Prior knowledge:
Layout: H1 11-33, E1 36-42, E2 47-51, H2 53-56, H3 69-75, H4 78-89, E3 96-106, E4 109-121, E5 127-136, H5 138-152, H6 162-179, E6 183-190, H7 193-200, H8 204-218, E7 225-230, E8 233-238, H9 246-258, E9 262-264, E10 267-269, E11 273-280, H10 287-303, E12 309-311, H11 316-337, E13 341-350, E14 356-366, E15 372-374, H12 379-384, H13 388-405, E16 411-415, H14 423-435, E17 443-448, H15 449-454, H16 456-468, E18 472-478, H17 485-491, E19 495-498, H18 510-525, E20 529-532, H19 538-547, E21 551-552
Parallel strand pairs: 11-12, 14-16, 16-17, 17-18, 18-19, 19-20, 20-21
Antiparallel strand pairs: 1-2, 1-5, 3-4, 4-5, 6-8, 6-11, 7-8, 9-10, 13-14, 13-21, 14-15
Amino acid sequence: MVQGRTLPKKPSESIRSLAAAHDAERLRLAVAGAREAVFDWTMSDDRITWDGAVDLFDAHAHIDRLVRGDGLRLWMGESGRKALALVLADPSPQETSFEIEFEGASAMGSAWFEMRGIRLPGHHGRAERLSGTIRLVTEKKIEAQRLSYLATRDELTGFLNRTSLRAELARVVEAARDAGRTCAYLVASVDRLAMINEAYGFGAADEVIVAVGERLACALRETDVIGRIAGNKLGIIVSDCAEREIALVAERLRGAVRSDVIATRAGTVAATISVGAVWLPSGTPSSQEAMLRAEEALDRARANGRDGFHTYVKSPQREMARLRLMSIADEVVEALNEQRLVFAYQPIICATSRAVKHHECLLRMKKPDGSIVGAGQFIPAAEQLGLVRLVDRHALEMTVAQLRAYPQASLAVNVSGTTTGDSAWLNSFANYISSNSDVANRVIVELTETAALNDFEEIARFVARLRDMGCRVAIDDFGAGYTSFRNLQLLHVDMVKIDGSYVKGLAQSRDNQIFVRTLVDLAQNFNLKTVAEWVGSDEEAEMLQDMGVDYFQGFHFGEPSLELKW
């Protein structure tokens, strides 16, 4: 006796019993905290015992039915039942693990669950018992579906993006070829979108794109597919379409757009589209080539003005040009893989001190034989084939690497006009700058004037984010497009680069002198720095300095060099 209590004869058994009780409680708390249910299902009597099921399945309409395997099967969706049947039919004599994701109905609607466990076989190899856990994964499933949707859809219109549309086109063409049928691919471009944006204000262009897309979608059949492939371009797959019907489809689409004005927040807009088309399969070996041919037809349709239409017609000259384009694209991919895309650095000179202030990074390709080719020989092909995003990303990574290697350097890197229409890519670009924030204040991002107009609101957000991180932003080739200084003020850029066509031969052109002087005066009023491109002589430099230009760029002050020099 101790304090009136009798000690047990076998204290070790009591301690083990107490420990077991504690283990069970810990398991119960762990299961509850993890929002999981533990199950043990015996095949002989089709009974399932649960721990934590009441908490996990509290929304289930008939939870009492889940104590039997038949009830569990009825609760699971069709795909879940099929996966479970495969587990049970497994003839392996060994213990095997399994994982099943299934949709289950509940009083609150459908929910997604993940079942993980061990299949225990009997002496005949058939499943004798399943033991494991089930947990609720509805939020995870919804997030995965959302990310999948964003990866395949255009953010503005909700239609398929270019990559997804190209994959769908490949599927449709292959199915048509197997069935001996024909189909068509059309690309529709909103006419003069930049002018609409300029005339109606920022955001109007996006509203027009959405409205045009909706009208096109309504004019299509349920079996047809639409996607947004670029800023003002929509791609359309028309299944089961005879060659003679393509013109009729194009006219129906153009009529749907021009039939009525489009209401925007800034006012009503009269919009039209131009359409290029290609009949398929018609010997086209790939969906990418089909899209290129439709783009070629679109260019011919737009050459005739607004509201045009043209069907691709094969010609030896265009076929040679196409093969050349594909060959250049292969060269670009090989150069990227082999690190043969490099920079040539051209100095930007201070007008007053004639000292180097920063350098512009100009892309060059090193050929396998060691020769160097300029960007003009491969960037247009990369833009047409959608490779320019990879090229621009490579350029950004090279810029950051050089800034780390040369702490005294400031570098300007170009973003192509095609890339600026891709909001996901712009975010990726900004994120990369953010992850290398220690060099951000030495980065100057150059955007072309026309690219800034195509999707003004998106570019404005991009510029604001870059400047918040310390980057400077320049508008390249200013004067070649339609941008007004009001736009530049709202974009909050740091500098404008005067298009070289207005600088070359400046001393002999009174009109160019007036234009440059007016532009510089306006830039100074908006606190914008100016860079004159193509400066070719001391005479031009003196004139530009007198006009108030801040920086010079041109062969007279330094040709592009593969080495970074001061």
